[in-house]
Amino acid sequence: DAKTTQPNSMESNEEEPVHLPCNHSTISGTDYIHWYRQLPSQGPEYVIHGLTSNVNNRMASLAIAEDRKSSTLILHRATLRDAAVYYCILMAGGTSYGKLTFGQGTILTVHP
Amino acid sequence: EAQVTQNPRYLITVTGKKLTVTCSQNMNHEYMSWYRQDPGLGLRQIYYSMNVEVTDKGDVPEGYKVSRKEKRNFPLILESPSPNQTSLYFCASRLSGANYGYTFGSGTRLTVV
Q1: How remote is the C-alpha of A104 from its chain's centroid?
Q2: DSSP letters spanning A20-49
Q3: Are A90 and A32 in contact (CB under 8 A)?
Q4: Phi, psi values for residue B15, rounded to 5°
Q5: Per-residue model confidence (pLDDT) at position B98
Q6: Which residue of A has its CA nearest to B39?
Q7: Which residues of chain B lie closer than 8 angstroms to A92, CB-CB?
Q8: For a 10 Å CB count at each end of chain B, is N or C smaller?
Q9: Distance CA A69, CA B34 (A)
Q10: pLDDT tens readout for residues A70-89
Q11: A97 and B45: CB-CB below 8 Å?
């Protein structure tokens, strides 16, 4: 499976934007970039995904580099409820199963 | 409400006593999967299923069995649990194709003594 690299931890203040980076230099042309987060004592939660173009949804935005070797998850205004572990994962496209291989993720701390 | 339901949420059992953790989804998803989460090791895939009667091993299948007789259910079976299977377990499901995200259940915390 193609690998992703994320910082171990990041900190933010409430109501400020947060940019969570992810490197995936070995990404293949059919890999989708998925982001999940896991709040304390809960199961992982899907956040957003994309292939080549930047994506927006109600939770976040995903900015994908032109060469697709890196991406950034953007939380526009962090809240205390956004404190979680954020996972950047590559999911194979095409007809493959689309297995999710989780790395260690980034622990996001949000200060009031 | 669209969801993945796992039962039980908490379970303490003794070594060797067979147990089943149930997983059910109401979204007509084709793909289902089981993960275990351990401190320092993160989330690791145990088994997955691409549809009814189609299952395959993930990264850590030893000591576990699964079955997929109906689309909505994907139980995880521990025939002879051991203490090293003490973990937090998550079931997940999604539609087929890479353009969909997984929905995870709330987890089952299993302790084997």
Answers
A1: 12
A2: EEEE-TT--TTEEEEEEEE-TTS--EEEEE
A3: yes
A4: -55, 130
A5: 67
A6: A104
A7: 98
A8: N
A9: 29
A10: 999 999 999 999 999 999 98
A11: no
Residue of B nearest to A106 (CA): B42
Do B101 and A102 lie within an 8 Å CB cutoff?
no
Report the alpha-carbon distance of residue A67 to residue B6 in Å, rounded: 40
Chain A residue numbers with beta carbons less than 8 Å from the beta carbon of B90 are: 43-44
Below-50 pLDDT ranges, chain B: none
How remote is the C-alpha of A92 from its chain's centroid?
16
Task: List residues bridging with A90 in a β-sheet.
Answer: A33
Residue B22: beta bridge partners? B7
Question: Are residues B104 and A45, on separate chains, in Cβ contact within 8 Å?
Answer: yes
- Tell me if B18 sits within 8 A of A81, measured CB to CB: no
State pLDDT tens for residues A46-66: 999 999 999 999 999 999 999
With CA atoms as reference, report the closest residue to A48 among A2, A15, A86.
Answer: A86
User: What are A22-41's pLDDT values in tens digits?
Assistant: 999 989 888 889 999 999 88
Total residues found in chain B within this entry: 113
The count of other CB atoms within 10 Å of the CB of residue A24 is 22
In our burial notation (b when 16+ CB lie closer than 10 A, e otherwise), range B46-82 reads bbbbbeeeebeebebbeebebbbeeebbbbbebeebe
Taking the C-alpha atoms of residue A23 and residue A71, their distance in angstroms, rounded to an integer, is 7
